[in-house]
Amino acid sequence: MKPWLVLNGKDGLPASMNNVLQNIDVVCFDLFGTLINIIDRQRPLAQILRRLPKGKVELFRRLAMTSDMSIAAINDQIMAGASVADLIAAQTAISHEVASLRLCPGIAEILAGLPVPYGICSNLSVDYVGALKRFPEIKPAFQVLSCFVGHQKPDQQIYEMVAKASGAPPGRIMFVGDTPSADIEGPRQAGMKAMLIDEFVAQVSG
Fold first, then answer.
1. What is the pTM for the complete model shown?
2. Strands across the sheet with 26-29, in order?
3. Whose CB has fewer CB within 10 Å in the chain, the N or C terminal residue?
4. CB 75 within 8 A of CB 57
5. Rounded to an integer, what distance in angstroms lies between the CA atom of residue 151 and that of residue 157?
6. How far is 44 from 94, CA to CA, in rounded Å?
7. Which residues of 96-116 are buried (b: 16+ CB within 10 A; e: fewer)?
8. Of 166, 172, 177, 164, whose CA–CA distance to 192 is shortest?
9. pLDDT tens profile 166-190
10. Are residues 152 and 165 in the same domain?
11. Separation CA 47–CA 84 (nearest Å)
């Protein structure tokens, strides 16, 4: 048993976890960098983006995160002009990243010990969605994934979707992640509570 799981709080839960989640009905976690780490980062789109006109770089990135289109389909739609070799290299790099995914240390115990339901809200390319099945420790009550909902953090619409999916009012949702703009500032603007993952882990382990 992890030291922080000593049962000394209300309802047999760690006192520190009860304190962090006081008046919280639902926790919403970011995914990569929060629950799961990419060990072998490859920057799959770097070669393609380097060759794009400046005006198409952001469009390519956004479509990669807010649509379920493949990289090749995005390339065709915006006439990016990536070569077959570039597209193959990008998919190979994605495969390397997916193969290197690992659950963050201590996360399985934290998720298992949460006294409230939790969900996931992630800026995620469709290429990575299938990898979630490799982590049975992650059992979210809901998932709001940018590639399926057409918005990405910190778009305010995605936090509204989190509230709707969770069934909880924004003020009773705790958002946890590793990116200040997407996981702290955005949720707080939407009326949610928010903490960086390192702070959350430290407090529930306290």
1. 0.89
2. 143-145, 118-122, 26-29, 173-177, 193-196
3. N
4. no
5. 7
6. 6
7. ebbeebeebeebbebbeebee
8. 172
9. 999 999 999 999 999 999 999 999 9
10. yes
11. 12
Q: What is the number of alpha carbons within 13 Å of residue 163 lying toward its C-beta?
A: 15
pLDDT band at residue 51 using 50, 70 and 90 as cut-offs: confident
CB 90 within 8 A of CB 45: yes
Using one digit for the tens of pLDDT, what is the confidence trace for 56-81?
A: 999 999 999 999 999 999 999 999 99
The pLDDT tens digits of the residues spanning 132-170 come to 999 999 999 999 999 999 999 999 999 999 999 999 999
Token digits of residue 178? 């590793």
Q: Are the beta carbons of 151 and 158 closer than 8 angstroms?
A: yes
Same domain, 27 and 129: yes
Domain of 200, in residue numbers: 3-37+103-204
